[in-house]
Design goal:
This protein is mostly helical. It has helices at residues 2-13, 20-25, 31-42, 46-63, 66-82, 86-95, 97-102, 108-127, 131-147, 151-167, 171-184, 190-205, 209-226, 229-245, 249-265, 269-286, 289-305, 312-326, 328-340, 346-360, 369-386, 393-409, 413-429, 433-443, 448-460, 462-471, 481-489.
Length: 496
């Protein structure tokens, strides 16, 4: 029975599904229900997967077979975790935990599935942010995997330890665990490529860009042969980001075109829109304006046909970038509209301000320059009103400094001195000597160009961005991954 069951499980694992329902039908209960649950898990019919797992679980308890209870607990927990019912999965495991811990004379089959119960327990705990207990359970799973020469469980447990270590900031530990996980995974498999992708992201976070690039390319070589469009797109995005960071826009453009081609094969509107936007943006910065206009047209068409309202601000951004390259004055109405719209997400409004300042501050003879800068200063006053001096004094004082500088640019010198004095008082009160010294230095007569550079440096600094998001408690939908990627990687605010 074990060898027949293992043969079917191996086919399920690699999604060789042809003829399996007929083969599974020949098994006796509860193994038939267990295998049907695994089958529907792989075909992503999760309702049936849970139903069959629950049937197997109930039959196992009715029979009081320790072996069947252990096996059914692992199966049901895995299915519940897949559909996000984490507490239910933990309840199932914990209700039977003593059976596993106190059992004597375990058979190899029982030991194998107890290892997987520990693994499922660890996964659920990790997703509920119980990291210490999750690490402990991954280590228990690892012990069972090593004891039974189960490479799949060993590699999966190391992978789990790597991911949790990364989440809690223990990056060196994560790197070690990823390496161990890869050593135990069969090469040239999708699982191997997925782990390579995770490992590549970690290497990138550690600043090991060359290693990360090589690792991503290894993963891509596998995904391009047997992966899904989504898997390929994730790697293309990372490689495009790395290329952009290393001032290789042509290479980044090539990867964005691959994202677009992959997304079109399975009709992924968000990714089609993302790729069109990025292609347009890079072409604008390269000066390829006809290609940029075509990408803008494709982006706009995708957004409208699929009602992707959350991408409308990006549509405006791309139009603005193109107009800035052609005629800066025509971009002004769009930028001002974005700043004024009350329903605009704050992150996008802030981005519009950055774009406006970056693009227009250097233009001394621009009509309405002082008026525009006053508008922006009032927008930052609203930001300051949303912050709390007691909880975020450094950010509060920084916004006062920003408002002071903008007031000076617009010609309101009294407001400049008043706001700066208030900022100095807050820095002194909350014991920020470096900020206090910096603010006092700002009080001195400074050439206009230096003031404008100071404003832009503040706005575009990572520390100011982090303080803004933390102090204003911006919800995640206002600082989403798509915005962050394009802001940081594709030079959204570059005017070159």
């Amino acid at each position: 029975m074990d060898s027949l069951e293992d043969a079917i499980l191996k086919k399920l694992h690699v999604k060789e599904l042809t003829g399996l329902p007929e083969a599974i039908q020949k098994f006796q209960e509860p193994y038939r229900s267990l295998l049907f649950s695994a089958y529907y898990y792989q075909t992503e019919d999760h309702e049936k997967a849970v139903g069959y797992a629950q049937d197997a679980f109930d039959m196992a308890f009715a029979s009081q077979s320790r072996q069947q209870i252990i096996r059914a607990t692992s199966r049901l927990a895995e299915c519940l975790i897949r559909i996000g019912r984490l507490e239910n999965a933990i309840d199932v495991i914990e209700a039977n935990y003593q059976i596993f811990k106190s059992a004597k004379n375990l058979t190899p089959y029982e030991q194998k599935w107890i290892g997987y119960v520990h693994y499922q327990y660890a996964v659920a705990l990790a997703q509920l942010s119980n990291f210490d207990k999750s690490m402990q359970q991954f280590k228990f799973a690892l012990e069972y995997g090593q004891k039974n020469n189960d490479n799949h469980l060993v590699s999966s447990s190391f992978n789990g330890l790597a991911i949790v270590s990364e989440w809690i900031g223990k990056m060196k530990n994560a790197e070690t665990y990823y390496k161990k996980s890869l050593r135990h995974k069969p090469k040239n498999t999708i699982e191997y490529a997925v782990t390579l992708g995770n490992y590549g992201a970690l290497l990138l976070a550690l600043g090991k860009t060359e290693q990360a690039t090589a690792t991503y390319r290894k993963a891509l070589a596998i995904f391009e042969r047997k992966g899904t469009a989504e898997q390929k797109i994730l790697i293309y995005q990372q490689l495009a980001s790395i290329a952009t960071d290393h001032n290789q826009p042509t290479l980044a453009l090539n990867y964005c075109k691959k994202i677009l081609a992959a997304a079109k094969t399975v009709n992924l509107p968000n990714d089609i829109a993302y790729a069109s936007f990025a292609i347009g943006l890079i072409n604008v910065n390269l000066g390829n304006l006809p290609d940029a206009e075509k990408a803008l047209h494709d982006f706009e068409k995708t957004v409208q046909e699929n009602t992707l309202k959350h991408l409308l601000p990006y549509l405006d951004f791309l139009k603005i970038k193109l107009l800035l390259k052609q005629n800066k004055h025509e971009a002004l109405p769009l930028l001002r509209k974005m700043i004024r719209q009350e329903n605009q997400m704050f992150a996008h409004k802030h981005s519009a301000i950055q774009t406006l300042l970056t693009s227009f501050l250097p233009l001394d003879n621009l009509p309405e320059k002082a008026h525009i800068v006053r508008e922006i200063e009032m927008t930052f006053k609203k930001m300051q009103d949303g912050a709390n001096e007691t909880e975020s004094p450094h950010f509060y004082a920084s916004v006062l400094k920003l408002r002071a500088l903008l007031s000076k640019i617009s010609g309101d010198h009294d407001k400049f001195h008043s706001l700066l004095s208030e900022a100095i008082s807050i820095a002194k009160k909350h014991h920020y000597p470096e900020l206090e010294a910096e603010l006092k230095k700002t009080q001195m007569d400074t050439p206009p160009q230096e003031i404008e550079k100071n404003v832009l440096d503040m706005l575009l600094s990572e520390s100011f961005q982090r303080e803004m998001h933390k102090s204003l408690n911006l919800p995640t939908n206002e600082v989403n991954e798509f915005y962050d990627l394009l802001n940081s990687k594709f030079g959204l605010f570059s005017t070159s």
